[in-house]
Design a protein that fits this description.
Length: about 325
């Protein structure tokens, strides 16, 4: 049995590990407990590119956090990952890529001052109405999660693979519990506002690409691919309230076809695997504290498609909250 920590973080995806790293590097004894190892979480499946319009909620203008806060979080996230790109072993690199939209008259004013921006040539549009080049931090999530786990261990934190049945159970293990369970918070935190948004990606041998392609859209089917060395990750889709972990062969073929329409070399690439994960969608990100008996429970979930981008600013917000004296 692991010695009682000061903080128990539930969840070992990018949100949980980043939060645990922030707390452990503040000198707190931290235990991360999760049903899945980091490489088995939804975070490992993420097609993480850090730039552009946020795909996180809220979609409603009066939801929390306000747009000014999410834009600040996004800037902080981009700066953090840009800095990490200079460090070996993080899985982060700054890479050129094409951004595209099918919407006529798409507002891309936000992109014009970004690094490497230039309009696409007619041939580079690949059938999209709006398209341009831009450099951005791209994250190989498998390598990055390994980096976070190593950083946690170096700070004295402990990672334990074991299921937490309830927050009440977790509250018996530590004076502070941080809930970073993503879509599983629907069950663990009894939060009916949380919806799973299923995503499926196809991993193929990289046919020689050194740039990414990203369709910025809230559509159910999108076209995107990210090279990570000899692997190329293809996406994607968004299935609301779909909890199936089984890969859909029809979706696999559709994803490959969409990506090959942009880059024909993908059509002949050997398929290495198909990955499925659940984004945690919610009308508002839940970054809040409650009490269960004498235990402080801090929630940090509901980031939807922006979990990677928001991982550091939200983790630091949690660390500030935890380090505050408990309110009686």
């Amino acid at each position: 049995m692991t010695q009682c920590p000061d903080v128990l973080v539930v969840g070992a995806g990018v949100t949980g590990l980043t939060t645990a790293v922030c707390l452990a590097e503040q000198g707190l004894p931290v235990l991360v407990r999760a049903a899945e190892a980091p490489r088995d979480t939804t975070s490992a499946v993420a097609l993480a590119v850090l730039m552009g319009p946020s795909l996180a909620p809220p979609e409603e203008a009066d939801s929390w956090p306000p747009i000014e806060t999410t834009m600040r979080w996004h800037r902080e996230g981009v700066a953090e990952f840009t800095a990490l790109a200079g460090r070996p072993g993080t899985g982060v690199s700054v890479m050129p890529g094409r951004w595209a939209s099918h919407r006529e008259g798409e507002d891309i004013a936000w992109a014009r001052d970004t690094p490497g921006y230039r309009p696409c040539t007619p041939e580079e549009h690949a059938g999209f109405a709006a398209a341009f080049w831009m450099s951005a931090p791209v994250v190989d999530m498998r390598a990055y999660l390994d980096h976070l786990a190593a950083r946690l261990a170096a700070a004295g934190g402990v990672l334990e693979i074991a299921r937490v049945a309830s927050l009440a159970e977790a509250a018996e293990q530590a004076p502070v519990v941080v809930n970073c369970t993503g879509a599983e918070a629907r069950h663990l935190a009894d939060d009916p506002e949380v919806h799973a948004v299923r995503g499926q990606h196809v991993v193929v041998e990289n046919p020689g690409l050194d740039s990414y392609f990203f369709q910025f859209s809230r559509a159910k089917a999108m076209t995107m691919f990210m090279p990570h060395g000899d692997r190329l990750v293809l996406g994607g889709n968004a299935g609301r309230d779909d909890w199936s972990r089984e890969p859909d062969p029809v979706q696999t073929e559709e994803i490959i076809a969409r990506c090959a329409a942009v880059e024909p070399r993908i059509a002949a690439a050997r398929v290495l695997g198909v990955e499925v994960g659940f984004r945690a969608s919610r009308s508002a990100i839940r970054l809040a504290e409650e009490r269960l008996g004498d235990t402080r429970v801090v929630h940090n979930y509901g980031h939807s498609g922006a979990a990677v981008a928001f991982s550091w600013p939200c983790a630091r917000a949690v660390a500030r909250q935890v380090l505050q004296p408990a309110r009686v």
